[in-house]
Amino acid sequence: MATVRQASVLPGFGLTFGFTTFFLCTIVLIPLAALVLKTGGMQWHDFVHVVLSPRAIGSYRLSFGASFLAATINLVFGFIIAWTLVRYDFPGRRLIDALIDMPFALPTAVSGIALTTVFADNGWIGQYLEPFGIKVAYTWIGVTLALTLISMPFAVRSVQPALLEVQRDLEDAAETLGAGRFYVFRRIILPTVLPALLTGFTLAFARAVGEYGSVIFIAGNLPMKTEITPLLIVIRLEEYDYKGAAALGFVMLLISFVVLLTINLLQAWGRRRLVRVGR
Amino acid sequence: MGSFVRPGRDLPENTNMSITLDQVTKRYQGVPVVNDVSLDIGDGEFFVLLGPSGSGKSTLLRAIAGLSGVDHGRISLHGRDVTHVSARHRGVGLVFQNYALFRHMTVAENIEFALRVRRVKAAERRQRRQELLRLVALEGMDNRLPAQLSGGQQQRVAVARALAHKPEVLLLDEPFGALDAKIREELRRTIRQVQRELGITTVLVTHDQEEAFAMADRIGVMNLGRLLEVDQPHELYTRPATRFVATFLGAANLLLAHQTRDGIRFGKTSVKAPAAPHGSREHEVVAVVRPEEVEVGNHREALKSNFLAHGAVEEILFTGALERMRIRMDGGGDVAPLANSNGSGAALLEVTRTLHEQRAFQVAPGQQVAVGVRRIHVLPTPLSSFTACAQADEQAETLSHHPLLVELATRMKTRISARVEPKFGVPGAACEAAAAFAGTTVIASEPQVSRHAEWLLERGADEVLILPPNAVAPQRVLIHWADEGVRGATLAVSASILRHVAAEAMYVGILPERTPDTQRPLGVRALLDARSEAQAVHGLEMRTELRFGDVASELARQLAESTGQMLILGVCAINGLAERFGTLLDDARWPVLIVHREPEGATA
């Protein structure tokens, strides 16, 4: 993408850059630095003991595993929802379009309780799953479900504008050249929206990893089984083990950073194939 | 008077038809956007579909490509009926206005796309790609991405891509729309060259008449979903058959004139011109005068051509090689143009003069000049103008502002005048106004309207339009003639109406209820004859329907079926009109246009 620097309504570069740094520092960097410092105050032995305890490792696996699963589910279904909203016109389209944002607005605890009610063994849906031996509430499935719900808008909203940009002409052109539907999807549509899909996946994943409110209601919070890392941190805090909490937070920060960086690099690589040079 | 549509006229005999459209119709929400289009395009022909935006030309092109289905009619490519074949399997190449290149693929990948789909081997693909890149003069650009190319280059890639799978037909949808003038010209030349080299049948869609003239073997002009005229560029320009084509192709002044036995009369000035065919009586016509056919002189004697009128030069515009001026004509409405292609209703005569003419006679704004015309082309279309006729002044005034009438007149680029006849409808009473009825006479629908129509027809009106107060533009026009003698005129009038409203045409043939079975096939024959005559002579595509019963009640039943219908009724005998069609006409809720002619040949 060509960098266009144009004079805008906002004051000059110096001032805006100053604000940017100031905000980033106060809101993001300083709290994170405090976290790292707090962790730095620990003995290496204690740190390893805390972050590699079986309970912690179990919680990482659940947190990151369920988040990854949720983001993947949203990648597929978010794409389908966005496709339906962009490509078809049907009664109630605007209503559904507005509903997509609901998980944004709802307090996460409300989503969690609602999900638990519906998916509990005697809930509206849970009672029909129960005879098949499928338990949703208080298992990892429930955790994934909650994370899918709250991260869904990110996936849909990222893909939607990209799909709008896939011109019908491109598909028409491919069709007159002899391509079938699946071929068009694989070779034309998917490559065009791939960067947006990755963005959606990243955002959904990031949101899911940090989620706390909705999960604790549906998870059951059994140590080693259905306990997510953010909950473990809260438990440590309640035990006044600030250093332990900070250490766990630090590990989450690290893993998240590595995952996000990887996806960003992937995206940058993909975008380089679409650069516009000197038009 | 030539036919409007002259398909394949200039093509050698036995040429194979590459694209054949038969009564193709496409509707959006009930409104036909492509309306009964029939067309033959020859092998290797460069055909241009020309029309303003919204005329249905792009929709028609997409229908040929198979990207949008048709609601009615058939499409054949090289004799193969492809109406229900998907775009994938039609074997056409399509080029879009916005190039529609795959941005994530290189030039090479774009061009090879169609070959990859067909699993062509890599070596063969590469060879074909080199060939195509040479053809569009883009050698060595293989590994560029579309974003690294200029607009003109991108469109060249798009052309190469569309040709990769050796399609039988190349379709171009406004391919130069997004390019600036210089590159446009260059690309035009390339495409014409490629087309000649490959001998591929090509259809180009454009709204730019200059582009159409520059590229076409033949041009088809579309408006409101209908294909109005098809011919070679020169023929279309010098001998247009319709008002729309006359004003859309190049600049034109449209003037009302009277075709007389020995020439053409503008107001009181007679101009030598070819006489009316086989001595028909004097009637009003629309004449086309191209701005370059107008001569300007100091006084009448100085003109080398037919004197038309005096006028005052209103404005002069110097445009380099040509001088354009507009002249306000003396003598009121008689010689003032109905319209010129600038669309200004100011009714000024447009004139263009070459440098040579300018040197011979210099003109300044405000100067009085004599105006002559070197060449006049008379349009063969009826419905030259409208006259709203009523008993009182204000009734005539109200009627002349009827929305449907105003819409029709605007689209037909003609004028509406008002005429007051105090004794209107009184049996035996003479006309108040001295002038004969000219053009179409319009009256308001009321209980006794059939008698009024009879009264007008007896006194010389050729066409009478009966308008209900709330009539709107019709979606379907029913056509029927009560006497065979008026068939040609009815078809001509119907064709003229249907060129200006987006409606379907349906001819209703009616045989008496007690027609013996042996006679019935003759009815069907007559129907088919009517259809082919409408198509061949008037360029009018229409559906046909055969019914049995009483004429007036069958038509009334059909009209009552749904709103938005109009009736065109041809009659020879005026006497008894009210008795025969009273039920159909009196207090009608639908517009009715009565076409009256003496039986053909009777006047000779």
Structural class call of chain B reads alpha/beta
Average of the residue pLDDT scores of chain A = 85
Largest sheet of chain A: none
Low-confidence stretches of chain B: 1-14
Order of helices and strands of chain A: HHHHHHHHHHHHH
**Count the helices of chain A. How many?**
13
Number of helices of chain B: 16
Shape of chain A: globular
CATH topology of the largest domain in chain A: MetI-like fold
Q: Which helices and strands occur, and which strands form pairs?
A:
The complex is a heterodimer of chains A (279) and B (604).
Chain A: H1 13-40, H2 44-51, H3 54-87, H4 93-99, H5 102-105, H6 108-119, H7 126-129, H8 140-165, H9 168-176, H10 181-210, H11 213-219, H12 229-238, H13 242-272
Helix pairs in contact in A: 1-13, 2-13, 3-8, 3-10, 6-8, 6-11, 8-10, 8-11, 9-10, 10-13, 12-13
Chain B: E1 17-28, E2 31-42, E3 46-50, H1 57-65, E4 72-77, E5 80-81, E6 92-95, H2 107-117, H3 122-135, H4 151-163, E7 169-173, H5 181-198, E8 201-206, H6 209-215, E9 218-223, E10 226-231, H7 233-238, H8 243-248, E11 253-259, E12 263-266, E13 269-272, E14 283-289, E15 294-297, E16 306-318, E17 322-329, E18 339-340, E19 349-354, H9 355-360, E20 368-373, E21 377-378, E22 386-390, H10 393-400, H11 403-411, E23 416-420, E24 440-444, H12 449-458, E25 463-467, E26 476-481, H13 487-498, E27 504-511, H14 520-538, E28 543-548, H15 551-561, E29 565-571, H16 577-585, E30 592-596
Parallel strand pairs in B: 3-8, 3-9, 6-7, 7-8, 22-23, 22-24, 24-25, 26-27, 26-29, 27-28, 29-30
Antiparallel strand pairs in B: 1-2, 1-4, 4-5, 9-10, 11-12, 11-14, 11-18, 12-13, 14-21, 15-20, 16-17, 16-20, 17-19, 25-30
